[in-house]
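S1.2 Input.
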Amino acid sequence: MTRERPRLGRGNVTAIAAGVLATLALASVPVGAAASTTVSAPAATKGETHAGDFDPPPVTTPSASSPPLMNPSTPPLPVSPAAPTPATPPGQEPLLPPVGKVPLLPPVGPVASGSALGAYLNFGPEGVRRIGELEKWLDGTELRVGHTYLPGDLWSNIEGKPGFLADWATWRRAADDRMFVLNVPMLERNEDHVPDEVVRARLRAGAAGAYDAHFTALAKRLVDLKVPDTVIVLGWEMNGNTYTHRCGPDPGAWKKYWSRIVTAMRAVPGQKFKFDFAPTRGRDAIPWTDCYPGDDSVDIIGMDSYDQPENMPFDKQISEPYGLQQQVDFAKAHGKEISYPEWGLFASGDNPGYMRHMLNWIDEHKPLYSTISDYCPHGVWQCTKNPRSSVVYRSVLSGRKEPGGVKDPSATPSPAPFPSATPPAAPAASPHPVTTGPPKGCVPVELGDWAEYWLGGKLCVRLDWWREK
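S1.3 Output.
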């Protein structure tokens, strides 16, 4: 997937008199009826509403999102007609009723000691700061992975400018058990849609040593910053056709070039790098096994695994050729650890069934690390378009403690399935989600726990609405 900068919009949640009447009507009807007349969450990525593992809490804040990869449509919040049993679209789980005040899922089990959890939150210093904010939202669950990407526009950026890497290096050095994961492009102009004949020529030049110096410079920079054990996700998603560093135009040259880069970086004194070979799940443009450069130059078999194609059941994502099961089997056969550098929602929109199954898969197979892509349309914290999946993610991972990842039984997620957005104190390119109280001039209305759960919080009435033109 092409990396996007998350730019979250901002807005204050305000209700007016019409909302009061609608909500009072909602609170006055029986529980069974009211559950089917609330305001629904935003529709899925392609404008389709999906049933998941339980009825979603409605969205009570304006949608805030970063630019999506494929610009999915975002229709206004519709009023869902009463329906005793919503239909279940293909590829998703049957609807389950909410349990108690918050529809919590049971934990999937302890996270393996050494299986590190993280998220891609932002490429720059803001991404470092947001790690702590996400940990708070997860009730203290430790995020041991910091994940970012080197820009692939120019060789000077692929070499890793000190100002770009310094904050990440500082975060990594603050605790011995932390892990810094860095995606490194193999060629400049990496997202410029370079034609195959040019890619082929550049791969062959790289295989002959034309670009060794750039990767030697990067290795020295990481060692100088005292992060010599960085996990290098080199030439990711090489089996697709998105990036200039793709494998398809010349698999033989690509494999030689990969090995040459690894040799150059390992030659730098003091390095302890691990190199992660991370294709996309499935066949894509070329089978990823055709791009595998060999055991001597690979430490980890990763996989970027998003919820796509649309409505593909999770068991198909496991069993398809070059899918999740083949990744696990391939890694075992080659004596390698596995990872999931990128994963998240996509073609089927807000799909809590996928979220639960992917978390179960990660727990069962215990990768070295996994990092969800937390921006729209993939994410669950910074992206408010996926409220049902957000509840699943938070319910499963909230309050887990290291080592061993055993969930603290006293840690219970608060009812809010995702953070509310408020304006930052100072202008920022990518403000992060935070939780706030009622806006100024807004009076909370007591409707009872049940109604407030389905509203996602207290109803707030602006008493000075008549002053506005």
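S1.4 Remarks. Confidence is low (pLDDT under 50) at residues 4-113, 403-439, 449-456, 465-469.
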